[in-house]
Design goal:
Helices cover 14% and strands 46% of the residues. With 459 residues, the protein is mostly beta strands. It has five domains: 2-33; 37-55 and 64-128, RNA Polymerase Alpha Subunit, Chain A, domain 2, CATH 2.170.120; 138-232, Beta Complex (RNA Polymerase Alpha Subunit, Chain A, domain 2); 242-327, Beta Complex (RNA Polymerase Alpha Subunit, Chain A, domain 2); 330-456, RNA Polymerase Alpha Subunit, Chain A, domain 2 (Beta Complex). The strands form eight sheets. Strands 2, 3, 5, 6, 8, 10, 11, 13 and 14 form a nine-stranded mixed β-sheet that branches. Strands 9, 12, 15, 17, 18 and 20 form a six-stranded mixed β-sheet that branches. Strands 1-4-7 form a three-stranded antiparallel β-sheet. Strand 31 (421-424) and strand 32 form a beta hairpin. The longest helix is centred in the first third of the chain and has 22 residues, at 13-34. It is rod-shaped.
Length: 459
């Protein structure tokens, strides 16, 4: 039995070998039809390794163009090729392999592409073989991070302040890149916010044109910073302005106007509740000697700082102040001397004025002058201690309110007589019928000459 089987197997060996080879061919054809070859392209950023070798030289590598993007394709069975993604490859450029002896500024670094799986199932065909670099001086600088915000807080609220921690960023890298950095910003979104908020953000680098600078070639001591925004309440507050000094004689301060009349301020609620007005102090606007309207612009920021508040819009810090100065009118009134109130006159004396009216010059604004009459004017004459004789004395003029003023002085000429004496035919006789004695006119009873002149003369 065994021998028969062995004989059967060893018969016609050539035919059997041919059959075996034919079956293999048929299998390969079937497999190729079921899983045909395919290709797939990739563009993957190159990972730079061993950068410290260049850094230790005081240099930093700068990529030339897009040579840090490796372009290649793979070819093999479709089932394997289509299964591969960019994450399935390791693409590196080892700076320890750069040939520093190469002529020219551009150096070539070999790019290594390795499949992380199925590496024997397909072929890798590289189109980008080398990464091109130039070596630049390494520059390190420190930048203050500017805290910014974006968006608008909820209605009735405003941004009180924004701060970033830490606020100093150390950046190192190619001198050509670092030297382009003009400002560093950290931004927080406050849109619709009604309370304090904080966030962790990545600082953004800008050049002088406001364009963003990529940090790919740079090293920073902080990858992210913390930024906080205080959200304050807002309030519309009126502005008041005082003035200092007095206008020139004949002119009057009428009013002071501020534009805008109110400003929108922000602050903590407890502080805002105590504030009802913003005062511009009188020492800011001096109207001394003014003869016409005055205009000035006042920065109200210092007065807000003193209150612990600030403006919602900083552009509203300049307030236009207009002071209205109006010239007064002067009017002369004929004042009856009979209206003069006399004080200090003894009952035995009588006083007679030399004129029936006196001119009283009054100055006031036109609108006030229309309502002033002589009956509103009070004139006072004090004759205390005066003896009979003729005098000229200044009257005290009282006007109804401080909106009126007297121009110049008002003098009145008058004569004081002793009612007990009357002169008839050159003789002095007693005017009192009950007095049985004549008035003594002897020289020894006469007044001294100087005193007589004082009492009888005009002062």
């Amino acid at each position: 039995m065994f021998r028969r089987m062995m004989k059967h197997l060893t018969n016609n060996p050539g035919l059997k070998l041919l059959s075996f080879l034919f079956s293999i061919v048929i299998w390969l054809v079937v497999v190729n039809i079921a899983d045909p070859d395919a290709t797939k392209s990739f563009s993957i950023p190159v990972e730079i390794v061993n950068k410290d070798i260049i850094t230790e030289m005081g240099k930093v590598p700068s990529i030339v163009g897009d040579s840090d993007i490796a372009v290649f394709y793979i070819s093999g069975p479709r089932s394997y090729v289509e299964d591969m993604t960019s994450d399935d490859f390791s693409v590196t450029a080892d700076l320890s392999q750069v040939d520093l002896s190469q002529e020219g500024d551009t150096k070539l670094v070999p790019i290594e592409i390795t499949a992380k799986k199925n590496d024997r199932r397909f072929d890798i065909v590289r189109r980008t073989v080398n990464m091109q670099i130039t070596l630049e001086d390494r520059l390190e600088q420190k930048f203050v991070i500017s805290a910014e915000s974006t968006g608008t807080p909820a209605e009735g609220y405003a941004i009180g302040g924004v701060e970033v921690t830490p606020n100093l960023l150390k950046i190192s890298g190619p001198a050509s890149v670092v030297s382009q950095i003009k400002r560093v910003e950290a931004t927080i979104n406050v849109d619709g916010i009604s309370g304090d908020v904080s966030d962790s953000v990545i600082p953004v680098l800008y050049d002088e044109d406001g364009s963003v600078i990529s940090p790919d070639l740079l090293e920073m001591n902080q990858s992210a910073v913390t930024i906080k925004a205080e959200i304050w309440a807002t309030k519309s507050v009126p502005i008041q302005c005082q003035v200092n000094g007095e206008p020139s004689a004949g002119y009057q301060f009428r009013s002071v106007e501020c534009a805008p009349e109110t400003v929108m301020v922000k602050g903590k609620a407890a502080v805002l509740n105590r504030i009802s007005v913003i005062n511009i102090p009188g020492d800011v606007i001096d109207i001394s000697g003014a003869r016409e309207d005055m205009e000035d612009t006042v920065d109200i920021t210092p007065y807000l700082d003193a209150l612990g508040i600030s403006l919602v819009e900083q552009s509203a810090s300049q307030v236009a102040v207009t002071v209205i100065i109006e010239q007064k009118e002067t009017k002369a009134f004929d004042y009856p001397t009979s209206n003069i109130k006399i004080t200090g006159l003894p009952s035995e004396y009588e006083l007679n004025f030399s004129a029936e009216t006196l001119s009283v010059n009054v100055r006031a604004l036109g609108e006030h002058m229309e309502t002033l009459t002589p009956e509103n004017i009070e004139a006072l004459l004090d004759v205390t201690d005066l003896t009979p004789g003729t005098y000229t004395r200044q009257l005290t003029i009282n006007l109804p309110g401080d909106k009126y003023e007297t121009v110049g002085i008002v003098n009145a000429q008058f004569t004081i007589l002793d009612k007990r004496l009357q002169v008839e035919d050159g003789e002095v006789q007693p005017t009192n019928p009950d007095d049985g004695q004549d008035v003594n006119t002897d020289d020894e009873d006469e007044q001294p000459e100087d005193e007589a002149e004082d009492n009888g003369g005009t002062e």
